[in-house]
Amino acid sequence: MTPRQRLLYAQFYFWYYAVIGAYTPYVGRWVVAMGHGGAMASAMIGLWYASRVIGPPAWATLTSRSAQPGRWLVHGCVLGLASFALFTLTRATIPLLAVMAVFGFFYNALLPQFEAMTLTALGRANHDYGRIRLWGSLGFLLVAGSYGWLLDRLGDAAFPWLCLPLLIIAALAAWPHRHDAPAPAAIAGATNTDHLWRRPGVRRFLLMAMLAQAGFGTFYVFFTLHLQAHGHDGLHVGILWAIGVLAEIVMFWFVPGVLARFGAPRLLGACLLIGSVRWALTALYADSFALMALVQLSHAFSFAVFQSCLMRMMVEFFPGRRAAVGQGLLYGFSSGFGGVLGAAVAAVLWHYGGGRWAFLGGSALTALAWLIHVLRKQRPPG
User: Fold this and answer.
1) Which end of the chain, N or C, is more open, meaning fewer C-beta atoms within 10 Å of its C-beta?
2) Looking at residue 58, what is its pLDDT?
3) What region, left, alpha or beta, does residue 263 occupy, with left being phi > 0 and alpha being psi -120 to 50 degrees?
4) Domain that holds residue 290
5) Where residue 62 sits, what CATH number does that domain have?
6) DSSP string of 13-74?
7) Spatial contact of 73 and 16, defined as CB atoms under 8 Å apart
8) Whole-structure pTM value
């Protein structure tokens, strides 16, 4: 991959995640400001995760057969933009949910496709994935950290209008990939009966990824509320979020060397253990800002290194033309089923035991993911 190509791939990650940084932290605020209750806000987020179960696998069946997968990336960006624009036309419950489902279908389908394109373009240099992916984290950080301030000054009704320019730029960032994105190589001996689900180790790998993502459920939904319940103000909560994302960005830069030294399977197990301890400490010691700051540094391993390990193992599990379908399968299981499961478990535990029980539940789910990983019997096929 040439320096120019690296820039183009990094650019799309930046703007793709910039949209996520505007959408996920603030869509609930926008919905509530229109007069809908918390249940509606939860339903919008729930549909966002649920669409990851259907969208990526369905989209992957199209992109995996295409000689120019970059064209599908552009189509998906345009369809995501067009569907999101419908948010400006309605305030009623059913139309909002319908638009959310369509937007989530198209936009959530883009990332696994682009991950497959990135790994294919990197080829044997796939260990450099983190140094390209970190630009997505930077885009998320900059937008998530500034859009709350913008909404305070422009009003919550400005939310869809603030998101639309980001979606337009994301579509423009996808445009250069319509021709230069390489088609994955065919796999010798692969047949229609060579079903990905039945490949050795795949089911265990997907189950581990799903449970790890479910362990993050409490963090995504209740971390801010948990900190506020323990006396931290908005400034300190924002600092803690920023510490985690900055640690993620720094680690994405250094992760190629870490992967080369320790290997993806061993690092993956370490990341799951660190994640389990992270959620337990968050559950039990949220009163301490200093300790929470240290705990947030572990995001470098429980997210950045973990994600890089997944991508390295995905190259081995799903090479060549299997890449796009494999990424869709992973995304549907981990962010789709795992996201919905994690949010549901967190909500139940939060209701009965508050933040302590919710984060202990996340710790238990991550520990279970670690157990499944270390008891694996099959290595990823080459």
Assistant:
1) C
2) 77
3) left
4) 195-382
5) 1.20.1250.20
6) HHHHHHHHHHHHHHHHHHHHHTT--HHHHHHHHHHHHHHHHHHHHHHHHHHTT-S-HHHHHH
7) no
8) 0.77
